[in-house]
Design brief:
Nucleoside Triphosphate Pyrophosphohydrolase; seven-stranded mixed sheet; 3 helices; 21% helix; 34% strand; globular; hydrolase
């Protein structure tokens, strides 16, 4: 079995005109809403992972659309939720996550491939919706006005 790498990215996608945050509903836990996240693959940089995950999860090509993906130069270490630990090697309980921001001038059409649904929410509502303390912290740090 191939285990997930305990290094990942979090990409906060938000629309600047109305200050709305994109939140995605997980397939493997429909009560769990989050921003774009993904595992850093071997030989990938965090930036390359962020670009790939945005394309894979919402169908938006950052480079083709000439969007500015901002590296926050910030990372956090968090405990992996018990329901997701089976994806990691048995001795792994924590993941290190690198944060990125993706400001959009408007709400782009979203093409879901890995999630059930999405919502554009004011930052306060996005904070209240997510179960992830690190996702909450990133929104509070960068998007609450």
């Amino acid at each position: 079995m191939k285990y997930k790498n305990p290094y990942s990215v979090l990409v906060l996608v938000y629309e600047t005109k109305h200050n709305k945050v994109l939140m995605l509903q997980r397939q493997d836990d429909p009560s769990f809403w989050q921003s774009i996240t993904g595992t850093i693959e071997n030989e990938e940089t965090p930036l390359q992972t962020a670009i790939r995950e945005v394309r894979e999860e919402i169908g938006l090509d950052v480079q083709q659309e000439k969007l500015k993906l901002i590296d926050c130069n910030h990372s956090v270490k968090f405990e992996i939720f018990p329901q997701f630990r089976h994806k990691y090697a048995p001795h792994i309980s924590h993941c290190t996550e690198h944060w990125f921001l993706l400001p959009l001038p408007e709400q782009y059409e979203i093409h879901l491939t890995e999630h059930l649904d999405y919502q554009w929410l004011p930052p306060q509502q996005a904070v209240a919706l997510t179960k992830s303390w690190n996702n909450r912290a990133a929104i509070e740090e960068y998007l609450l006005i």
